[in-house]
Design goal:
Elements (H helix, E strand, L loop, with lengths): L7 E4 L4 E8 L2 E4 L9 E2 L1 E4 L5 E3 L1 H6 L7 E3 L12 E3 L4 E3 L1 H20 L7 E4 L5 H13 L7 E3 H10 L7 E8 L4 E9 L2 E10 L4 H18 L15 H17 L5 E9 L5 E9 H26 L8 E5 L6 H8 L9 E2 L7 H10 L18 E6 L3 E2 L5 E7 L7 E6 L6 E2 L3 E2 L5 E5 L8 E8 L5 E2 L1 E2 L2 E6 L2 E2 L7 E5 L5 E5 L7 E9 L12 E8 L8 E8 L13 E8 L5 E7 L4 E4 L2 E2 L8 H25 L2 H12 L2 H11 L4 H48 L2 H20 L2 H22 L1 H12 L7 H17 L2 H13 L14 E2 L1
Helix pairs in contact: 2-3, 4-9, 5-6, 5-7, 7-8, 10-12, 10-13, 11-13, 12-13, 13-14, 13-15, 14-15, 16-18, 17-18
Length: about 850
């Protein structure tokens, strides 16, 4: 058949994928050659370099993990994440493997419907990074999908659930817990259009993590308790095959426990001495629910944050749309419905959570015109053609259609649109054509079925004439408005700050330009210097707390003359509806624009030893913040600490650090969870800032009072009185920045008093003496300290002043900026 709209939608999932096509007023899943509605997102390359996709690959992963790859969606857009298939000696990037899954889904359509498709809407998590969206687009191209708009999964789910809804000004919450990602989106349905009010999500929160918890905390302990399998775990390559079997068994048992209280795990394994044994284990739903709990807490916290940002409460939300296989868990549904520990919002059970995203994608695809539709050829002599302009799907019951008829002399000709319906026929009446063949007509459409209209062309005598096309179809249904940007996008600056260009929630498409200045000179013709501008996604003010998704680069070979330090660079970002990004750098000094200089690729994940060091440092920082929070008994800080504990952030990091020794997916997740931990500790420290400042204020005031009373004069006592008043005003205003400024002024007063009395140099010398091990020239430092001791004995403040200056100069230079890879500033 000839299509004018895309009509096919694909859910390219972490665990399973599915394809659906638009049909009538909804969408139907296209089953694969096994008769299943979903296809495992798995690829197996055998020793003959033959590719196997889907169930055959998934089953093979238990016995042959070196030649099978699953769950590669989580690696999309991250550099250095290729899978090496040992038997064939072949490596594939995540987008190449995703392309094989897309090809498999295309073959299913060809087999079931005899149609070779070259266009489809592909869904991505709303929390997906820009680099992952870009990689998904590349996968579509590799699969032969020349037109592949990307659609956010929560929007797809809402379309599937509400396409024929008559609700007005209703708010829904999409709870999308997939195999590897989580999205929470507040959706507003108004006047037949969906609008995403706000979104929160996590790219590394999904059923896969629950599977690993089952493996590591239930199955492995049960095995090692009875059998010799030293070091059994993801961090030991010797046990890769056994771990793969356990992972598959955990996934199957988890699915069974959605309907049963107990699931049997039966596996044949081999111990470290090469002896085979049968492993039998009864897995109880209650044990899995206990492991599920931290993930539910994380997801509920994200939902509550989304609601709070929307200015809404649970009572304002009509229903929760459940998306993803893990939402079939009875425990999860019970927890979500609980008003105290969950959301307390009615759950919608009307959709299949496993296929709802694919069906919603197909519905959206019915609103997207095919770009490859060629303009109709000029009609043959004596024949007529019509070009139509209208939206094929929309909320209007009286849609407007414009058209233009081409053919022989059209004087006195008219058109009429007719809906042949035995129950309720409708005719537009004859509409006279303009001299150029143009016409316009308002149709009458009904909800709940496709509305097909015959186009009847008649001449001045009323005689009918054939016209191509002879019909048009319009469907009444809810449509999506502009999708929102789900993460803020900015550029990292040399001082570890961020210049935000597009803020989260900005309707797409969007464009923004900002002027920055270089911090390094660039010498033309392959000389020195490179302009590097990191592109960041996230919400934190500190650049290193956000995800680096790519970079703008201008190298010396690209410039025709030298670019001095401090030169202007105009950076322009444009993001389309699919969250695909185009960035350009214009340099006024060269009057030249550099296009396609973006390397949109998430930076390579650090090696396991570096992850381990970072994790240890953050745990120390968390411990210090916890001690201070408990000492100050600060409720906001303690609340954040309780959330860190409830979500098991530290435990996640520790487990992933160990698994990252051999598992690249674990390394990727570890990097993400480390960012979560760093941001959470920042939040604790920020919460502690005010109680810490007020405590410092009371202690400093007492100390300065004593110094001024013993060593100060009348002018110092007057300045102290003014300072005390200023500190109290800052405390009353609860202004941390102002209070810090007033405390600095008090410190300056104390230093002034001590300097004028001569005591300051003695105190400074004592402090510098303790820093001798850090000084560059130990011999000279020792000599200066000996001279300083003699000056102290004599009470010689002037000599100590000179000694102190020399000792300070011997201390290490200030550390470099936290992000040395950025070469621009405001």
């Amino acid at each position: 058949m000839t299509r004018s709209t895309i009509d096919f939608g694909i859910d390219l999932g972490t665990t399973n994928s599915a394809i659906a096509r638009f049909a009538g007023v909804g969408a139907e899943i296209v089953k694969n050659n096994l008769g299943h509605e979903t296809t495992p997102s798995a690829v197996w390359v055998d020793r003959r370099n033959r590719m196997h996709v889907g169930s055959a690959a998934k089953v093979r992963s238990e016995e042959d993990p070196d030649n099978v790859c699953t769950e590669f969606k989580l690696r999309m857009g991250t550099s250095g994440m290729a899978k090496h298939f040992t038997a064939a000696g072949r490596s594939m990037e995540p987008e190449e493997m995703s392309a094989e899954v897309l090809k498999s889904l295309k073959r299913d359509v060809a087999q079931r419907h005899g149609e070779e498709i070259t266009a489809a809407v592909i869904t991505v998590p709303a929390a997906f990074e820009l680099s992952a969206c870009d990689a998904t687009k590349r996968a579509a191209e590799l699969a032969g999908l020349t037109q592949a708009p990307l659609l956010q999964e929560p929007i797809a789910a809402a379309l599937a659930s509400g396409f024929q809804s008559t609700a007005d000004n209703a708010f829904w919450l999409v709870y999308d817990l997939g195999g590897g990602t989580f999205d929470a989106a507040v959706i507003n349905l108004r006047d037949g259009e969906f609008n995403v009010v706000t979104h929160r999500g996590d790219n590394f929160l999904g059923g896969k993590l629950i599977d690993w918890q089952i493996v590591e905390r239930l199955l492995i302990p049960a095995i090692t308790e009875r059998h010799a399998m030293t070091g059994l775990g993801r961090g030991d390559r010797r046990w890769a095959a056994a771990i793969s079997k356990l992972k598959q068994a955990a996934e199957q048992a988890k699915i069974q426990l959605s309907q049963m209280e107990v699931a049997e795990v039966l596996l044949e394994l081999t111990d470290e001495h090469g002896r085979p044994f049968d492993f039998e284990y009864e897995m109880h739903r209650a044990d899995v629910e206990r492991l599920f709990e931290p993930f539910i807490v994380r997801s509920v916290n994200l939902c509550r944050t989304a609601l709070s940002e929307s200015g809404l409460g649970p009572g304002d939300i009509e229903k929760v749309l459940l998306v993803g296989g893990p939402t079939l868990s009875p425990y999860l549904r019970q927890r979500l419905a609980d008003p105290r520990e969950g959301l307390g919002i009615p759950l919608d059970h009307g959709q299949d959570p496993i296929t709802v995203v694919a069906r919603g994608a197909a519905i959206f695809a019915a609103t997207q015109r095919l770009e490859t539709m060629a303009a109709p050829p000029p009609p043959a002599p004596g024949q007529y053609a019509v070009q139509l302009e209208y939206e094929p799907v929309g909320p209007d019951l009286q849609p407007f259609v414009g058209g233009r008829v081409s053919g022989p002399d059209l004087a006195g000709y008219s058109v009429e649109l007719i809906r042949d319906d035995a129950r309720d026929p409708w005719r537009s009446g004859r509409i006279a054509l303009a001299p150029n063949g143009a016409f316009g007509v308002t149709l009458l459409a009904e909800r709940g079925r496709p509305n097909t209209y015959r186009i009847e062309l008649t001449d001045p005598t009323g005689a009918p004439h054939d016209i191509t096309p002879a019909t048009l179809t319009y469907t009444v249904g809810v449509v999506d408005t502009q999708p929102p940007l789900t993460h803020s996008i900015g550029v990292g600056l040399a001082d570890n700050e961020v210049e935000w260009l597009l803020k989260r929630g900005t309707p797409l498409p969007a464009k923004r330009r900002v002027t920055l200045r270089t911090t390094v000179p660039v010498r033309a013709g392959g000389g020195e210097g490179m302009i590097r501008i990191p592109l960041l996604e996230g919400e934190h003010d500190r650049a290193d707390r956000n995800r680096r998704i790519g970079r703008l680069e201008v190298s010396p070979t690209q410039v025709r003359r030298d670019v001095p330090e401090g030169s202007e660079v105009e950076v322009t970002l444009r993001v389309d509806e699919s969250r695909l990004i185009v960035a350009r750098a214009y340099m006024p000094i060269l009057d030249e624009e550099f296009e396609q200089v973006v390397n949109l690729q998430t930076e390579t994940v650090p090696e396991q030893p570096e992850l381990a060091r970072e994790a240890a440092a953050e745990k120390r920082r968390l411990a210090a913040a916890r001690r201070e929070a408990e000492e100050l008994n600060d409720r906001p800080a303690l609340t954040v600490l309780a959330r860190i504990d409830a979500e098991r952030i530290v435990a996640d990091v520790e487990e992933m650090v160990e698994a990252a020794k051999v598992d690249p997916d674990a390394a990727t997740m570890c990097g993400k969870r480390l960012l979560d931990l760093k941001a959470a500790v920042d939040e604790v420290e920020d919460a502690l800032e005010w109680p810490r400042l007020t405590l410092q204020a009371h202690e400093l005031l007492q100390a300065v009072r004593e110094i001024v009373a013993v060593k100060g004069g009348p002018q110092h006592r007057q300045a102290l009185a003014s300072g005390e008043t200023a500190v109290q005003e800052a405390i009353t205003a609860h202004n941390a920045r102002l209070l810090q400024q007033r405390l600095d002024e008090l410190r300056s007063l104390a230093l002034q008093v001590l300097d004028e009395s001569g005591d300051l140099q003695f105190m400074a010398f004592e402090e510098l003496r303790t820093m001798q091990p850090e000084m560059r020239d130990q011999a000279e430092a020792g000599r200066l300290i000996a001279v300083g001791r003699q000056a102290m004995d004599r009470g010689d403040a002037d000599t100590l002043r000179h000694i102190n200056v020399q000792l300070r100069d011997m201390l290490p230079s200030p550390p470099p900026p936290p992000d040395p890879f950025s070469t621009v500033r405001r």
